[in-house]
């Protein structure tokens, strides 16, 4: 069994308790307008291109089997329409202007990487976190990794938007120690901002809560988009309604995804300013007055 992995982050400390390894799966059913990992949306391999790093050396011209690259008047031209994202050009780019996104890995490949740091998990109450993209959209692979981790005595987290068939979510309950559940918007604006309705997401959240799951709510807040008092109240009310909610994470918007969108050759239609420290404190104070559940901010 193989799936596309676009990153494995070691020594992560913000994606669950303790020191963790985060496995990022490629492909997501949502398309949040502010997505900070736009390279995670597609289920296919892709190629990032940063023109600022290009040396116009011509290596890619010589090696590309699809003839996607050319040098004209000293300037690199990249024809994405012909690209199959084989990654050969990226492997031979001295300036690292080209970068392949997404590598096929099997369960053993992933677990070999995860297990190398088991001593750090054991000493910090850490473990492995599956993220994305959306791990639930890779159900069979996700289940296999989680079961392998549990068999190895490793604490498991899954960071999810919660958009999946309920039977799949239910099937993962025995092998997930902690659910990091994204709360992206109020229900009335959810489809406009993410591309899907929130009904199934909220049903799944309440189902795992009734089953006794441990939950952290993860709340991306984007100025002018979803940082209204209405949304902050929605987060507090939702947290208060859950028996298993242990904490709320405030995640202020960061414009990291804007640059990566351009590198993917897409038109960037979204921009927002990163909220100031004082604005983040306003978010915190507003919700703190409305729930006794611990709230964490950067």
Structural descriptors:
298 residues, alpha/beta, nine-stranded mixed beta sheet, two-stranded antiparallel sheet
**What general form does the structure show?**
globular
Average of the residue pLDDT scores = 96
Which range best describes the helical content: under 10%, 10-25%, 25-40%, 40-55%, 55-70% or over 70%?
25-40%
Total of DSSP H or I helical runs spanning 4+ residues: 11
Round the Cα radius of gyration to an integer and report it: 20 Å
Unreliable segments of 5+ consecutive residues: none
Structural class: alpha/beta
Total strands: 13
Biggest sheet layout: 9 strands, mixed
Fraction of residues in β-strands: 15-25%
Amino- and carboxy-terminal Cα gap? 37 Å
Strand order of the largest sheet: 7-1-2-8-9-10-11-12-13
Order of helices and strands: EEEHEEHEEHHEHEHEHHEHEHHE
Notes on the structure:
This protein is of the alpha/beta class and about 300 residues long. It is about 35% helix and about 25% strand. It is built from eleven helices and 13 strands. The protein has helices at about 60-65, 90, 105-115, 120-125, 140-150, 165-170, 185-195, 200-210, 230-240, 255-265, 275-290, and strands at about 1-10, 20-25, 45-50, 70, 75-80, 100, 105, 125-130, 155-160, 180, 215-220, 245-250, 295. The strands form three sheets. Strands 7-1-2-8-9-10-11-12-13 form a nine-stranded mixed sheet. The chain has a two-stranded antiparallel ribbon with strand order 3-6. Strands 4-5 form a two-stranded antiparallel ribbon. Helix 3 (about 105-115) packs parallel to helix 5 and helix 9 (about 230-240) packs across helix 11 (about 275-290). The longest helix is centred in the middle third of the chain and has 13 residues, at about 140-150. The chain is globular, with a radius of gyration of 20 Å. It starts with a strand and ends with a strand.
